């Protein structure tokens, strides 16, 4: 008989809320291992006793056969004294002083639960809160660690005998599934003003009849209406004050998705994945769902990711309604998503005909994530449900740092050891409610992670709300320039600690010289950076007003390039506008009054879009650039170019030739757009090649909101790779300002 040994095994990573303890229980039984397993605030702890060979196999399978939604970061072992006991058990959770556990993000309904949901013989048939260890709510319901039912908002629901038996049965996939529930003992849905037994059927009837319904999802309420019902979508747009900004659309299944969109294998995997984000897909039918995404060639599409959504679509199908639904955040414009029914008696009153609510409390508000696929990789536009609170591995650890984030697309970041945790999307920080949501989320995530920051890293801009919050916390302050923070977010993600050339293209960010940057090439080396190149500067007449009245930047660039004869060179461009505003803005450009210099690539996109016949005024950020991208021809076109030269020690990308070509007119929008995108890529490549020749650096990092442009990102990644560069870009964090906090935190860590 082989001598038995005993080991204490500590497993860290995403090992709570994903069926990890039941998995350990089963593997222990299969290998003849005795002992126990328990959750702790640091992860999972196991005491295992068996022969040396059996323990070796058991420990190997902890990593090789781990549950699909888990992530094993480390497995450490320690020899302890054998106890000679038999059997294996799941013990009550243990408390530890150090909190290093990670709670998984909310998981879309799995295939097994979906089948049970649709089976009339199953006791959970049409139950909108079905879940198991492989799916269901996690982050949105958890209050504290360790992750046990008592630590979640499910503590209000006592398990019935059948659910309790599942919960305690090691052979059942609901073994220790903390949100486990059924119609007898779990949460229930309700529709205001309706007292009948089928609230989802009544909600479906309202939707099919052209009404707007507020639907409580995992992390907040959504406004739903028929996506083909132009009258209903128009009413929703008017109520939300979003006349043109694209609205997410939910479709019942992949067959419906393919009816409207072209879908690659990679995009289908992303749609069906556990995070189940809204995925930006190319429309396959020109003009499809015209009011969902006006002026664009893409749609933000989701599949039903909760059982409640699935039941709702099933009820719609029973009524003969097989159309997509608009499924957008229940908020006004850029405010945080609503999480309580009381919101619809306040600021959101009158929008929805009815509110489909349920009594499972949302502890952590979390909006839908938005993503797109490019170059075989998932890119995040908004990091929220399905990703938060997942950690991002850093190349090294350090003291806890708070990255405060930016003014737009607010999100903060907390570091813990060698991991960074980006918060859920907060929203635009100039909204009063966003300040409250930010502070509330910071307190909750800090407590959940056991993260107590010593330093707060923030933007240079003193008027950013996130900067003011950071400076109010009594922490050490580290100011990080906006565009270096963008590049640092890429360095952090990819573990790049050696010198690199960073290309940061976005709308605006304050430079150390107090001008408005946005078209920058930086040399980076750890926490050190210097400006190596930029877009040629022009005046930004009216400051932020020029991001809305984009004709201002069109005028500014025309005046910059053509001088006082600009009207003679481009008489048709301003023919559609009143002369008085143009005269006022020209005076601002000439005098510099409220017109700082800017190198913004985002504002250049606006200017060229306007000059080529695009809108003069936009209603949401990057509208003109997105519509200009949508118009671009699929095939490559050249002919437009920037001048690229060195001046004052900087490589300058001068768009004067592009402005002249655009002003000359005579091109269809698709051709002009493609020529412009190609010219931007070639200018950056020329400047970066010059910098590389001077420095020997062959690593390129790309970040900033402009790189949410899928066409431009593809041109850069493929073109720079052909030119011999190693190219890095954002994958786990958004390239827009939603990823700034990660870069700020990493820059501060490197400095510390």
Task: Explain this structure.
The chain has 752 residues and is an alpha/beta fold. Among the domains are: 4-90, Alpha-Beta Plaits, CATH 3.30.70.100; 103-252 and 291-365, DHBP synthase (Alpha-Beta Complex), CATH 3.90.870; 534-729, Nucleotidyltransferase, domain 5. Helices cover 31% and strands 22% of the residues. The protein contains 21 helices and 31 strands. The strands form 5 sheets. Strands 6, 7, 8, 9, 10, 11, 12, 13, 14, 15 and 16 form an 11-stranded mixed β-sheet that branches. A 7-stranded mixed β-sheet has the order 28-29-25-24-23-30-31, with helices on both faces. A 6-stranded mixed β-sheet has the order 17-20-19-18-21-22, with helices on both faces. A hairpin with a 2-residue loop joins strand 28 (643-647) and strand 29. Helix 13 crosses helix 15 (579-591). The longest helix has 27 residues, at 669-695. The protein is globular and about 90 Å long. It starts with a strand and ends with a helix. The mean pLDDT is 94.
Which range does the strand content fall in? 15-25%
Briefly note the structural class of the backbone: alpha/beta
Poorly predicted sequence stretches spanning 5 or more consecutive residues: none
Would you tell me the overall average pLDDT?
A: 94
Number of strands: 31
Using the alpha-carbon principal axes, give the shape.
Answer: globular
Fraction of residues in helix? 25-40%
Largest beta-sheet characterization: 11 strands, mixed
CATH class of the domain at 103-252 and 291-365: Alpha Beta
Topology of helices and strands:
Layout: E1 4-14, H1 20-30, E2 34-40, E3 43-51, H2 52-64, E4 71-80, E5 88-90, H3 111-117, H4 161-167, E6 189-191, H5 199-208, E7 213-216, E8 221-226, H6 230-240, E9 249-250, H7 254-260, E10 261-262, H8 265-272, E11 278-283, E12 298-302, H9 307-318, E13 325-329, E14 354-358, E15 370-374, E16 377-382, E17 391-393, E18 401-403, E19 413-416, E20 419-422, H10 432-449, E21 455-459, H11 465-471, E22 476-480, H12 482-494, E23 500-510, E24 516-525, E25 528-535, E26 538-539, H13 551-562, H14 566-569, H15 579-591, E27 597-598, H16 601-611, H17 623-631, E28 643-647, E29 650-654, H18 656-664, H19 669-695, E30 699-703, H20 710-722, E31 726-729, H21 740-751
Parallel strand pairs: 2-5, 7-14, 9-12, 11-15, 18-21, 21-22, 23-30, 25-29, 30-31
Antiparallel strand pairs: 1-3, 1-4, 2-3, 6-14, 7-8, 8-13, 9-13, 10-11, 11-12, 15-16, 17-20, 18-19, 19-20, 23-24, 24-25, 26-27, 28-29
Helix pairs in contact: 5-9, 12-21, 13-15, 13-16, 13-18, 17-19, 19-20
């Amino acid at each position: 008989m082989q001598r038995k040994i005993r080991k204490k095994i500590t497993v860290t990573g995403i090992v709570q809320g994903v069926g990890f303890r039941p998995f350990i229980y089963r593997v222990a039984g299969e290998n003849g291992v005795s002992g126990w397993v328990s959750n702790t605030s640091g992860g999972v702890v196991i005491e295992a006793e068996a022969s040396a060979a059996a323990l070796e196999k058991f420990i190997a399978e902890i990593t090789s056969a781990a549950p699909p939604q888990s992530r094993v970061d480390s497995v450490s072992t320690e020899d302890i004294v054998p106890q000679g006991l038999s059997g294996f058990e799941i013990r009550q959770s243990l408390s530890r002083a150090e909190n290093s556990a990670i709670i998984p993000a909310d998981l879309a309904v799995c295939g097994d639960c979906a089948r049970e949901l649709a089976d009339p013989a199953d006791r959970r048939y049409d139950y909108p809160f079905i879940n198991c260890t492989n799916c269901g709510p996690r982050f949105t319901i958890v209050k504290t660690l360790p992750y046990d039912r008592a630590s979640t908002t499910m503590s209000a629901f006592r398990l019935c005998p059948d659910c309790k038996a599942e919960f305690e049965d090691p052979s059942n996939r609901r073994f220790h599934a903390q949100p486990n529930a059924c119609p007898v003992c779990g949460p229930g849905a309700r529709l205001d003003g309706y007292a009948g037994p089928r609230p989802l059927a009544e909600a479906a009837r309202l939707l099919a009849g052209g009404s707007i319904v507020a639907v409580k999802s995992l992390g907040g309420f959504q406004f739903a209406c028929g996506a083909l019902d132009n009258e209903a979508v128009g009413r929703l747009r008017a109520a939300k004050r979003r006349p043109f900004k694209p609205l997410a659309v939910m479709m019942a299944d992949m067959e419906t998705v393919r009816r409207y969109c072209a879908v690659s294998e990679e995009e289908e995997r992303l749609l069906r994945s556990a995070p189940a984000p809204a995925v930006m897909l190319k429309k396959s039918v020109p003009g499809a769902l015209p009011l969902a995404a006006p002026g664009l060639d893409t749609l933000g599409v989701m599949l039903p990711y909760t059982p409640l959504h699935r039941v709702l679509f099933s009820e719609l199908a029973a009524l003969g309604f097989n159309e997509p639904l608009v499924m957008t955040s229940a908020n006004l414009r850029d405010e945080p998503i609503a999480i309580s029914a009381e919101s619809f008696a306040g600021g959101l009153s009158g929008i929805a005909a009815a509110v489909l609510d349920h009594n499972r409390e949302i502890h952590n508000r979390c909006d839908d994530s938005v993503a797109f696929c490019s170059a075989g990789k998932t890119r995040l536009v908004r990091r929220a449900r399905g990703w938060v609170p997942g950690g991002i591995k850093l190349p090294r650890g350090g003291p806890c740092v708070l990255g405060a984030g930016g003014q737009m697309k607010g999100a903060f970041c907390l570091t813990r050891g060698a991991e960074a945790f980006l918060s859920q999307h907060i929203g635009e920080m100039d909204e009063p409610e966003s300040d409250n949501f930010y502070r509330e989320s910071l307190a909750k995530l800090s407590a959940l992670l056991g993260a107590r920051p010593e330093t707060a890293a923030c933007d240079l801009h003193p008027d950013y709300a996130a900067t003011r919050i950071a400076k109010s916390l009594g922490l050490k302050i580290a100011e990080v320039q906006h565009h270096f923070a963008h590049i640092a977010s890429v360095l952090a993600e990819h573990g790049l600690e050696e010198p690199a050339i960073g290309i940061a293209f976005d709308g605006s960010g304050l430079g150390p010289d107090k001008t408005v940057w946005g078209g920058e090439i930086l040399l980076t080396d750890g926490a050190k950076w210097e400006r190596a190149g930029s877009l040629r500067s022009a005046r930004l007449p009216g400051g932020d007003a020029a991001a809305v009245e984009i004709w201002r930047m069109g005028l500014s660039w025309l005046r910059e390039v053509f001088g006082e004869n600009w009207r003679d060179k481009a008489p048709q461009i301003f023919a559609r506008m009143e002369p008085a505003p143009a005269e006022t803005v020209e005076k601002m450009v000439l005098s510099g009054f409220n017109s700082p210099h800017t190198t913004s690539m985002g504002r250049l996109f606006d200017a060229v879009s306007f000059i080529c016949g695009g809108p003069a005024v936009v209603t949401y950020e990057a509208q003109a650039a997105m519509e200009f991208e949508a118009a671009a021809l699929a095939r490559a076109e050249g002919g437009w170019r920037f001048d690229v030269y060195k001046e004052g020690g900087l490589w300058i990308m001068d768009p004067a030739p592009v402005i002249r070509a655009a002003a000359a007119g005579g091109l269809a929008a698709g051709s002009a757009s493609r020529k412009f995108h190609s010219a931007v890529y070639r200018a950056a490549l020329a400047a970066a090649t010059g910098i590389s020749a001077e420095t020997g650096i062959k690593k390129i990092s790309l970040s900033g909101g402009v790189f949410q442009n899928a066409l431009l990102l593809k041109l850069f990644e493929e073109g720079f790779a052909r030119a011999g560069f190693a190219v890095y870009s954002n994958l786990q964090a958004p390239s827009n300002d939603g990823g700034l906090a990660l870069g700020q935190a990493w820059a501060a860590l490197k400095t510390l």
